[in-house]
Amino acid sequence: MLELSFKKTLGTFHLDLALQVNNELMVLFGPSGSGKTLTLQCIAGLLKPVSGFMRLNGKTYFDSEASISLPLTERGIGYVFQDYALFPHMTVYGNISYGISKEPRQTIKEKVSDLLSILRLEGLEDRYPSELSGGQRQRVAIARALIVSPALFLLDEPFAALDHPVRSKLRVDLKRIRDKFSTPTIMVTHDLEEAFILGDRIAVMNEGKIEQVGTREEVFYRPRSKKVAKFLGIKNIFKGKVASIGEGSASIDSAGFSVIAPSLQPLPIGEEVAFCIRPEEVMILREDRPVREGLSENIIPGHIIEIVEQGPTYLVLFHAVNGPTLHINVPSYAFKKLGLYEGKEVRVSLKRESIWIIPK
Asked: What is the rounded CA–CA span in Å between residue 36 and residue 28?
């Protein structure tokens, strides 16, 4: 287990971080300037915190009270930078084998060959970085970091400079690497889809602090605050008052509509609350079919005010009668079946189990 608790000041920016990372892929997610890369640099030993400690499986990387601060070369960390940082004068083979150059030649050859196979780099070992595509260079950087059998693997926005198809393939590569090497991994990204696909757990960072840590489901569907909800792409955030309570649920009156939502704890009637629902969890109902079970509650009438095509999905802006505007993500196949157009009057259902009352 990696245990982190440290502070770092850089100019006017203050990082105050406490985090535990198990044998998992932990994603540091948040807006630019929230301290994600700074966190990796401190863990790696490229920067020294002001105070605190860092320990991995009993090995102390840093302890301000004990005056311990190991250099990068003694921490056993594999670090993959956003800009690859390959040696331009070395071949693929030379770059990958650099960290184990003192081992026996046959051992080096076997280890490099294994990683070339895992990362789909066979036949490229004699090429130089300038002769590779962006995706190939990033795979070489990953292989170079892994060949030293690191105790901890750090990835700083590794796919940020790549186009979407290449990113998708590299995500699969990274999942395969995790299955084979089982190395605790911390990955920085500001890509929402990437965080959800790759993260075993996600730490949401903002202004040098961690706002929330949890599994993908906890963070994406049960945000701890309105700030976290906004970071995670939840546009549908509303205020309301508790009108009544039931067993494990609460009826909430909001501006122009009412909903029944799950409630993990009893709420007093009249209590002001905030609640949210992800845009992909709002269902547009077909008028030519009966409403199926699970969608018969929280039905809101209104009309479509705008439609934005987003590749495989459509963003539909729905204005409720006497109520707010909701953001709805509709898959392309469903959009065509629904026959949607701007101005069309429709009804939507806010699935009860998908509504989350944000804790105060």
From this structure: 6
Helix segments in 77-198, DSSP class H: 92-97, 105-118, 134-146, 164-181, 192-198
Compute CA 39 distance to the chain's CA centroid, rounded to the nearest angstrom: 16
Q: Residue 334 belongs to a domain with what CATH number?
A: 2.40.50.100
pTM: 0.88
Res 169 pLDDT > 90: no
Q: Verify that 239 and 222 share a domain, yes or no.
A: no
Judgement on whether residues 271 and 151 belong to the same structural domain of the protein: no
Closest to 291 in 3D by CA, of 340, 344, 349, 204 = 349
Are 286 and 224 found together in one domain?
Answer: no
Sequence-distant (≥ 6) Cβ neighbours of residue 208 within 8 angstroms: 13, 14, 15, 16, 17, 34, 35
Using alpha carbons only, how large is the chain's radius of gyration in Å? 25
Domain-terminating residue out of 200, 230, 260: 230
Contact between 281 and 289 (Cβ < 8 Å) = no
Rounded average pLDDT over 259-268: 89
Number of other residues whose CB lies within 10 A of the CB of residue 77? 23
Residues of the domain holding 36 = 2-230
Asked if the model's pLDDT at residue 182 lies above 90, the reply is no
Query: Is 255 in the same domain as 216?
Result: no
Mean pLDDT of the chain: 91
Residues 248 and 215 in one domain: no
As a whole number of angstroms, the distance between CA 140 and CA 177 comes to 13
